Amino acid sequence: MKRGKFIVLEGIDGAGCTTEAIKLKDYIDSKLKLPVHLTKEPTDGPVGGLIRSVLAKRVGTLTYDGVFRSIEPHSLALLFAADRVDHLEVDIKPKLENGIVVVCDRYYLSSFAYQSLNMDLEWVEAINSKCITPDLTIFIQVPPLVAERRRNKSRWHVELYEDTAKLEQVANNYLRIIEMLQRRGENIVIIDGNRPPLEVHRDIIAVVRPLLTTRTSTRSRKKEDAQGTLQLDIGLNEETDNEAEGAS
User: Counting C-beta atoms within 10 Å of the first and last residue's C-beta, which end of the chain has fewer, N or C?
Assistant: First the structure.
């Protein structure tokens, strides 16, 4: 069975990754008629649930002067890596091996961009070194102020990283790290997310479709080539027969 493709959507909080991941899953299912699985990080697993509580500022400590402090950044980074390894082994890899397309809302690029605010990128890469490389990563680029307005429309609380000043740094980290990973050969495409949703979805489909239809296209070309050869052979045979009749 042919291995499924692994597609990741990335962006700062409020970029629209979740919305576009759902739309992409529906497109692959309904239009391309391929088996597809939609997943996300942090996961809904045991470690992912703890991470979500940390991000929602429900887990942490109060300092002596009553200020809330989240858990230590390196510890949080290790939690993300642990959740990701579990996610890969329990969910992503088995589906890929069974020929299912996996669409993931965030992956290790998020860890690189966000966690390198507080620690060395090399260390964050090291704790994620066992992760498989996506077949395609799509980064939805949205200005932090636009992302903030979007978040304010849909949420009543601010999560750990959802400070516009921080997200400016995260956005810069994303672009810097994407360039680094592209030099290493990773397939990462940047999509302008500050446009009408239909245009964003159209551009995402434009980069995803060739990845998922290559096999079908190759088969079609082989069939067309075979038919063309057959027609050529028939034509040559007819010419040969006519020449033989004229000679007799």
Answer: C
Show the tokens assigned to 244.
Answer: 């033989």
* 212 phi, psi to nearest 5 deg: -95, -15
pLDDT at 121 exceeding the cut of 80? yes
Q: 125-157, pLDDT tens digit by residue?
A: 999 999 999 999 999 999 998 888 877 765 544
pTM, rounded to two decimals: 0.82
Tell me which residue has tokens 């970029």. Answer: 15
List of residues 6+ apart from 37 with CB closer than 8 A: 25, 91, 95, 100, 101, 102, 103
R_g over Cα of the chain: 25
From its phi and psi, is residue 39 left (phi > 0), alpha (psi between -120 and 50) or beta? beta
| 3-class state of residue 139 by DSSP | strand
CB 19 within 8 A of CB 26: no
pLDDT digits (tens, 9 = 90+) for 221-246: 444 444 443 343 434 344 444 444 44
Segment 40-51 shows an average pLDDT of: 95
Hey, which bits of the chain come out as E strands?
Answer: 6-10, 36-40, 61-62, 68-69, 101-105, 136-141, 188-192
Contacts of 62 (CB under 8 A, 6+ apart): 68, 69
Domains and CATH numbers, the chain: 6-44+72-247 (3.40.50.300)
- The CA-atom distances, in angstroms, between 165 and each of 11, 99, 100, 143 are 16, 42, 39, 12
